[in-house]
Design a protein that fits this description.
With 299 residues, this protein is mainly β. The chain folds into three domains: 96 residues, Nucleic acid-binding proteins (OB fold (Dihydrolipoamide Acetyltransferase, E2P)), CATH 2.40.50.140; 95 residues, Nucleic acid-binding proteins (OB fold (Dihydrolipoamide Acetyltransferase, E2P), Beta Barrel), CATH 2.40.50; 76 residues, Beta Barrel (OB fold (Dihydrolipoamide Acetyltransferase, E2P)), CATH 2.40.50. 11% of the residues lie in helices and 47% in strands. The protein contains four helices and 19 strands. The chain is elongated. The relative contact order is 0.10.
C-alpha cells in the first residue's frame, strides 16, 4: 500500500498508487461557480490512516456517494497539493473498502482540517491584521456600496461588488464575487459575514469572499465607544451631535436624555452647556446604529 511522504510538497500529475484512508468527517456539499463561469459542486472530507490526517476535496459529484463517516476508502489517481491536501477529480478513482481503525488524535486532526463552521466574530481591526487567507467572521454597518461591475478572470466576465464595512474598531473593504455580488445591499444596513478571508491589495487590508460565505442582514448591535463631538443641533425632540473625524456620521440622541445627563432644566441651559463643551465635548457613548442610547460626559 502506498504511503505519501509526510513532507510531500505536491506533484504535477496524479498518483497512480493506492492510498487507503478512514473517513473521519464530511462537510456539506458546496455549490460554486469557477473562474470560467461554470457551476460546480464539491465535497470536502477529512481522512486519516495510522500515520497522518488529510483534507480531501472532491470535484466529481458521482464520487460523493462513496464517502460516509466511519467507513474507509481506497484512492487512486489523486493529486497531492501539499500541506496534507488531496484533490480528487473526474480522473481519480474512489473505492469503498473495509473499515479501519485510526488513532483518535489523527481522527480529530482530520476533522479540524476540514471543519468549515463559521469562525467566531472578530473586530474589523483584528480582521485587517489577520494572516492572509485565514477564514474570518465580521459584522458591522455598510458605509459604502459600489455598483455591480464585471471584470474578466481568465477572459471570462465575472461579477464583483465592493463594500466598506465599519464597526467600533475600524472599517475595511469587502469584495463580493460572482453570485454574492448580486445581493441587495445598500449603505446603512448591518451585515454579519462569515467565511471571508484577508486578501491585502496594494498593501491595504481587504476581505474577499469564499465558496463557504454566509451573508446575513442583522440588527445594529450596541457598541460602547469614546467620542469627541465638535458641534450639535437642537431639534424639537432630539439632538444631533457631530463627531470629530472626517467621514463620521451624525449621531442622534433624545433631547430629554441629554437634558438629564447635563443637569439642564431647559433648552437654553442645555444650549449654554453644549456651547461651553463643543468643540471638545468628550463622552462615553453606547451607540446602536446612529442612535446614542446612553451618554456619559467625561470631565
Amino acid at each position: 500500500m502506498y504511503q505519501m511522504p509526510s513532507t510531500s510538497k505536491g506533484q504535477a500529475g496524479p498518483y497512480s498508487k493506492s492510498l487507503r484512508l478512514a473517513v473521519c468527517h464530511i462537510n456539506p456539499v458546496v455549490e460554486y461557480t469557477n473562474q470560467k463561469g461554470e457551476a460546480g459542486r464539491m465535497l470536502v472530507v477529512g481522512l486519516a490512516d495510522q500515520q497522518k490526517a488529510w483534507k480531501a476535496t472532491c470535484y466529481d459529484s458521482t464520487k460523493f456517494q462513496h464517502f460516509s463517516v466511519g467507513s474507509a476508502v481506497l484512492l487512486r489517481n489523486f493529486i497531492d497539493k501539499g500541506e496534507d491536501n488531496i484533490v480528487l477529480t473526474k480522473f481519480s478513482k474512489v473505492f469503498r473498502t473495509g473499515q479501519m481503525e485510526v488513532p483518535q488524535n489523527l481522527a480529530e486532526e482530520a476533522t479540524k482540517l476540514v471543519d468549515n463552521r463559521a469562525p467566531d466574530v472578530v473586530p474589523i481591526k483584528a480582521a485587517g491584521s489577520s494572516p492572509e487567507g485565514k477564514r474570518l467572521t465580521i459584522q458591522g454597518r455598510v458605509t459604502q456600496a459600489s455598483m455591480r461591475e464585471s471584470v474578466k478572470i481568465k477572459n471570462v466576465p465575472t461579477a464583483i461588488r465592493h463594500l466598506v464595512l465599519q464597526d467600533a474598531s475600524a472599517s475595511i473593504k469587502v469584495s463580493l464575487w460572482r453570485e454574492h455580488a448580486e445581493a441587495a445591499i445598500h449603505p446603512g444596513v448591518y451585515l454579519h459575514i462569515s467565511n471571508v478571508i484577508n486578501r491585502p491589495y496594494r498593501g491595504m487590508p481587504q476581505l474577499s469572499t469564499t465558496c463557504f460565505l454566509e451573508l446575513q442582514k442583522t440588527e445594529a448591535p450596541e457598541e460602547t465607544v469614546m467620542k469627541t463631538f465638535i458641534a450639535y443641533e437642537l431639534q424639537e425632540e432630539n439632538v444631533i451631535l457631530i463627531p470629530d473625524g472626517d467621514g463620521d456620521e451624525e449621531l442622534i440622541m433624545q433631547k430629554s436624555v441629554l437634558l438629564n445627563n447635563t443637569d439642564s432644566a431647559t433648552n437654553d441651559e442645555l444650549m449654554k452647556k453644549l456651547d461651553n463643551l463643543c468643540p471638545e465635548l468628550k463622552a462615553e457613548c453606547i451607540i446602536k446604529g446612529t442612535d446614542i442610547v446612553k451618554l456619559k460626559l467625561m470631565s
